[in-house]
Amino acid sequence: MIPIIAHRGNHDTCEAPENTEQAFNAAVNLAIDGIELDIQKTKDNQVVVFHDTTTKRLSNSNLTISSSTYSQLKKISLNTNSSNPRQSFHIATLGDVLNRLSKKSLIFCEIKSNHSIVPPLKALVKDLNVSPNQLIFIGFSHRPMTQVKQALPSFKTYLLYKNPPTFEQIQTDAHRCNMDGISIQFSSLLKPNFISAVQAMNLSIHSYLTPKYENDVWAHKIESLCKFGLSSITTNRPLWIKKILTNG
């Protein structure tokens, strides 16, 4: 069975908000193969785990990540549906997550900042002696992805696409960014012959699901593509995917 990656942790069936240490631990406790998380650089050059450019959606504050210090950000309590009033959730640094997460868990690390994140990211990975077998970098923007590969050449990098690109575009991007694979948003356009063609370029191909496709209507197609040659699948519903692939 291919690796199942919990998108922003297992926040689907637990009370923890996305991209928190509690959500990541929930995925690990369910024996999910890995997690996906998002990283950004703060004003004081800390690498934090957060998706949005501001804290507005997930808290009662509205700070911009890139123009705030980590000391400001870590004071924010993230919104939750938790029934335990004593339980609080906060923005973590990537270092916190790497130090506390099981070394057996794959981590797909999406770069949300621009290329200025690369120096502090490189320093962090080197200081913590992170294994290239555990940490994979993904992203939509070419410049930071190219510079991450240059700074950390032993770590795999995958470019993200919302729609299946042309083969010419993949070849151009692969040469420009020196990438190891691609990750494409799952849709009806993703076909077995496309997977085979990408693999023929010596690139791994991965897919990530959006809520539109995370239902039983699409279960059979998801299962068939996973068996055909996808290298991993990222989902908001890791237990559901695990059941499909296990029982299929």
Give keywords:
248 residues; alpha/beta; TIM Barrel; eight-stranded parallel beta barrel; 9 strands; 18% strand
Kindly describe this structure:
The chain contains 9 helices and 9 strands. The longest helix has 11 residues. It has one domain: Phosphatidylinositol (PI) phosphodiesterase (TIM Barrel, Alpha-Beta Barrel), CATH 3.20.20.190. Helix 4 runs parallel beside helix 5. 32% of the residues lie in helices and 18% in strands. Helix 7 links the parallel strand 7 and strand 8.
Strand content: 15-25%
**How many H/I helices?**
9
CATH architecture: Alpha-Beta Barrel
User: What's the number of structural domains?
Assistant: 1
Alpha-carbon Rg, integer:
18 Å
CATH topology value: TIM Barrel
What is the overall silhouette? globular
Query: Whole-Å distance between the termini?
Result: 10 Å
Condensed summary:
By secondary structure, the chain is α/β, with parallel strands linked by helices. The protein has helices spanning 21-29, 70-73, 94-100, 118-127, 142-151, 167-177, 192-200, 219-228, 238-247; strands spanning 4-7, 34-41, 47-49, 106-111, 135-139, 157-161, 181-185, 204-208, 233-235. The protein has one domain: Alpha-Beta Barrel (TIM Barrel), CATH 3.20.20.
